Amino acid sequence: MARITAGITTSHVPAIGAAIDNNRSAEPYWTPLFAGYDWTRRWIAGAAPDVVILVYNDHASAFSMDFIPTFAIGCAEAFQPADEGWGPRPVPVVKGHADLAWHIAQCCILDEFDMTIVNKMDVDHGLTVPLSLVFGQPDDWPVRVIPIAVNVVIYPPPSGNRCWMLGEAIARAVASYPEDLNVQIWGTGGMSHQLQGPRAGLINQPFDQAFLDDLTADPARLRHLPHIDYLREAGSEGIELVMWLIMRGALGADVRQLHRHYHVPASNTAVGHLVLEKP
Amino acid sequence: MTIDIHAYLAEFEDIPGTRVFTAARARQGYWLNQFCMSLMAAENRLRFKADETAYLADWPMTDAQRAAVLARDWNAAIDQGGNIYFLAKIFSTDGQSFVQAVSTMTGASAEAHNAMMIAGGRSPDGLRSKKESR
After folding, report:
1. Total number of domains constituting chain A
2. Do the Cβ atoms of B95 and A85 come closer than 8 Å?
3. What is the ipTM of this complex?
4. Tell me: the pLDDT tens digits for A102-161?
5. Catalytic annotation on A125?
6. What letter does residue A134 receive in the DSSP assignment?
7. Integer angstrom CA distances of residue A223 from A65, A114, A234, A246
8. Are strands A269-277 and A3-10 parallel, antiparallel or unpaired?
9. Torsion sign over Cα A77, A83, A87, A88
10. What are the distances in angstroms from CA B120 to CA A86, B33, B48, B105?
11. Cys-Cys crosslink for A36: which of A25, A261, A274, B81, Cβ 3.0 to 4.6 Å?
12. What is the DSSP track for A177-230?
């Protein structure tokens, strides 16, 4: 049977992708950020997942004002890197796992999560920057990826509790898939940042550190954190952190933290990164 | 637990220096944001750069929205219903980064804004609530 073995959280700042793509990651501005992913790159080589369920948000790339799905699952065979205004990132095509993705979609709908099924979708920095951070610059991504796109752009986004429960439903779906697959789930975005208005540049390190602590120490607190708290404390774009709770809900009650990294800044954003394992 | 949508939305107006992208703003900014999406195609970026005013004339936007785009006044564009991830298509077309574009909304130079970020960013103290001044 397929099984979820581990979870990763990471920010997905576009400037990180640009630094990698333009070979600037050895510059002093960037070295402390990338150093925090060295451990993860060694670990993932041994962990060797077959599939990553990658929770991210589309930044007005695949989804314009035409369609705004709250929870969308990518069921295609492959996903092209999106042109976000400066040409597509020079990264490999993202290969999906259509069979497992359709299985998850069917199971979640019967489990009362009405997923939007997407068969054609370009994937933007929200999905490709985490892959670059963890896998570097390979000719082909060494995993198949099931994108789960969450609306956190237009209010209201889903509640933290709803995200958590979707994670639980995804875990049940994976557990009923007959093929023996090593599956990871990644929650991306965050941490504190605000990209608009006179309050732009907001960073809240105590909030972020408490969030990182409580993903293992007190996840029930995070599950019930209202949107207004994210907005006031973590900035208007800090709401992306609800996506981490899908990852956390999928891992179940007990997790072990293998690795933790926090760095300010990447562009306008506080970067947080955890590797969690199911015991 | 049922949330009162009116109270939920009203709280957003209490956050200093922030416009939350609500349904009302999304409706107000619909064509502005859809115009931005058109810049994801390279041939449209070329046409836009060649004659911005003519390109904008093809979109049923308000005069205030067009003026905000031409002036690259991101605060004004957001006041007119624009969203930063959509507006990013314009400043990406200009070859600008998020740091460069975002700094113009705060009244600081890009250098000063970047220095603030390296020093740990803008503190939320005093910027959480207008009513409670915290």
Report:
1. 1
2. no
3. 0.95
4. 999 999 999 999 999 999 999 999 999 999 999 999 999 999 999 999 999 999 999 999
5. yes
6. H
7. 28, 20, 16, 10
8. antiparallel
9. negative
10. 28, 31, 37, 18
11. A261
12. --S--EEEEEEE--SS---SSTTTTB--HHHHHHHHHHHHH-HHHHHT--HHHH
- Phi, psi torsion values for B120, nearest 5 degrees: 115, 0
Residue B134 carries which DSSP code?
-
Give chain B's length.
134
Instruction: Tokens for A22, please give them.
Output: 């333009």
**Which one of B15, B90, B118 would you mutate to disrupt binding with A, by most A Cβ within 10 Å of its Cβ?**
B15
Residue A202 and residue B88: Cβ atoms within 8 Å? Answer: no
Annotated active-site residue in A12, A97, A103, A193:
A193
pLDDT in tens, A203-253: 999 999 999 999 999 999 999 999 999 999 999 999 999 999 999 999 999
A19 within 8 A of A198, measured Cβ to Cβ: no
For residue B1, the SS3 value is coil
- Mean pLDDT of the region A8-36: 97
Indicate the pairing of strand A256-266 with strand A269-277.
antiparallel
Q: How confident is the model at residue B1 (pLDDT cuts 50, 70, 90)?
A: low
- Encoding tokens for residue A224? 């019930």
pLDDT 10s digits, B5-64:
999 999 999 999 999 999 999 999 999 999 999 999 999 999 999 999 999 999 999 999
Determine the Cα–Cα distance for residues A251 and A171; give it in Å rounded to an integer.
7
Partners of A274 in beta bridges: A9, A260
- Measured CA to CA, the distance from residue A48 to residue A182 in angstroms comes to 8
* Residue of A56, A65, A239, A263 to mutate, testing the B interface (most B Cβ within 10 Å of its Cβ): A65
- Which residue segment(s) compose the domain that A40 sits in? 3-277
The enclosing domain of A10 has a CATH number of 3.40.830.10
Q: Is A97 a catalytic residue?
A: no
Size of chain A, expressed as the number of residues it contains: 279
> What pLDDT score does A220 carry?
96
| Residues of B in Cβ contact (< 8 Å) with A61 | 40
Using one digit for the tens of pLDDT, what is the confidence trace for A260-274? 999 999 999 999 999
Domains and CATH numbers, chain B: 21-93 (1.10.700.10)
